[in-house]
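We modelled the chain as a single entity of 220 amino acids. Its sequence is:
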Amino acid sequence: MSPIIRFDRVSVIVHEKTILSDISFTLFPGEKAVLCGKSGSGKSSVLRTLLGLHPIKSGTVYFQEQPLTPSSVQTVRSCTAYIGQEPMLGAESVREALLLPFQFKTHRDHKPTEAQLIEVLQRLHLPADILRQESSRISGGEKQRIALARGLLLGKKLYLLDEVTSALDAESKQAVFDVFSDPQLTVLSVAHDPEWLERCGIVFELEAGRLTQVKRNGNT
């Protein structure tokens, strides 16, 4: 099996400051990995680099064994659901936010039914009547789960998650854990939550932009 993501000695410099230095790791389909470390250690920068939001100074990022280039980055983005701490839902109501991607030609023929919308909300412990609510009036934790629901409706297989459990209560967090127990989903995340770290098969520890330790299933 080929890795879905591979960083090969990647260094990134932004505004003359090195934010990632000589980073190398691989992630295979179905694996769940978490980037951890102090604030400013480069965790979110790894996600942003994969999405083509930071220029690579040296080294190569591979996605499905193809080098990341300005032209290939669209392939990464089309396969990926990125969910940050405060997702932008891009529509006035929750229903409109969930259906927004299905207005475009690529997804127009796969518009979910009302039953499918409600089913995915239930999986994430969200009530059906949230569909009528304004996006601006729901909590940060609800926005994260709506963004996750949209990724699931689109059939995304790779999830880049930035502190997605930070605003969730125990019940909602368990619902997110349950969703990502699916072996078909690949996860590269940023988190400080000890429960999330325990659930991930791989822990990448960063310090000052360097990968200092890799733990797999509890082993270094």
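As a brief sanity check on the tokenised model: The beta strands are 5-14, 17-27, 32-36, 56-63, 66-67, 80-83, 158-162, 186-190, 202-207, 210-216. The chain has a mean pLDDT of 92.
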